[in-house]
């Protein structure tokens, strides 16, 4: 009887803790969902509807705002530029970081400690603080190659922007992947090596699938960094080939002056929706990878 009575307070505290946790999660989810839903509804309103209450539902579904944003405001062009830059940046950073992280985690070679310290130091460098030196360096290269490329090559080039994105995110990516590779037991590699697998096959067929949680994490973080970047893309793409974030600023300036807020909010939705879709997909894959990982005895 005494044991039962002593368990009741613990059960009550546990139930109270769960209720508070669920309430906090609900409030946070609501704080995120309400602005997103509000922007979505505002993107479907006519110009005259914005002069009333901002919380009223749209009278109709005005999808013409999206058409105008894609065509007249060139958000479609900016969107494709952002997709190209982001995908190419992800491919480049993974192509470099995965083999490099595997070598650092599993091989002993002269200077490995120095390389790790250098990569660790790179984590503390904010790329926004060095964007001006990067810009001046690229301008100098364009001047040196003016006879070969009279119109310039390194500035206003989306491919070069992808290279800058990948290069500046390599320290974080290698650091995270190296730590995860080291957490995988070496017995998997030894068993595969006894079966005649090469180092490349071991890395691509065994280590990389097992490191899927870490890979999906770096994909998510790097995707958000590339897609949401403003300062670097504004500096390195001064011409018409802007990314969607810079294009959104131009759209904001133009539509605010024209008081056409429906087209402005449509541009915001164009920017937000891909992030939500990728995040939902990556989150699901991340949870699946973590659930299927581990060493089975």
UniProtKB/TrEMBL annotation:
Subcellular location(s) per record: Cell membrane
Cellular component terms per the entry's GO annotation: plasma membrane
Short name of any one Pfam family annotated for the protein: BPD_transp_1
Main location: membrane
TM annotation in the entry: 20-41, 78-105, 117-140, 160-181, 202-227, 264-282
Every ABC transmembrane type-1 domain range: 79-282
Keywords carried by this UniProt record: Cell membrane, Membrane, Transmembrane, Transmembrane helix, Transport
Protein name in UniProt: Sugar ABC transporter permease
């Amino acid at each position: 009887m005494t044991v039962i009575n002593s368990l009741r307070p613990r059960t009550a505290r546990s139930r109270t803790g769960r209720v508070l946790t669920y309430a906090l999660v609900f409030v946070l989810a609501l704080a995120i969902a309400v602005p997103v839903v509000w922007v979505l509804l505002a993107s479907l309103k006519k110009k005259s509807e914005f002069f009333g209450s901002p919380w009223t539902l749209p009278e109709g579904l005005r999808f013409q705002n999206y058409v105008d944003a894609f065509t007249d405001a060139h958000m479609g062009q900016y969107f494709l530029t952002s997709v190209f830059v982001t995908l190419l940046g992800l491919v480049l950073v993974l192509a470099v970081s995965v083999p490099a992280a595997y070598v650092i985690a599993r091989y002993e070679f002269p200077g490995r400690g120095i390389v790790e310290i250098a990569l660790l130091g790179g984590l503390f460098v904010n790329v926004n603080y060095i964007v001006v030196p990067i810009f001046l360096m690229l301008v100098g290269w364009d001047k040196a190659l003016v006879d070969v490329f009279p119109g310039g090559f390194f500035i206003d080039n989306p491919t070069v922007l992808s290279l800058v994105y990948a290069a500046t995110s390599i320290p974080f990516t290698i650091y995270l992947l190296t730590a995860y590779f080291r957490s995988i037991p070496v017995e998997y590699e030894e068993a595969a090596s006894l079966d005649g697998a090469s180092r490349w096959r071991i890395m691509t067929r065994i280590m990389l699938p097992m490191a899927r949680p870490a890979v999906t994490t770096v994909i998510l973080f790097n995707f958000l960094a590339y897609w949401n970047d403003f300062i670097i893309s504004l500096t390195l793409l001064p011409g018409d080939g802007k990314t969607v974030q810079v294009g959104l600023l131009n759209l904001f300036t133009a539509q605010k002056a024209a008081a056409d807020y429906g087209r402005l909010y449509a541009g915001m939705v164009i920017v937000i929706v891909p992030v939500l879709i990728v995040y939902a997909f990556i989150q699901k894959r991340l949870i699946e990878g973590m659930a299927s990982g581990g060493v089975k005895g």
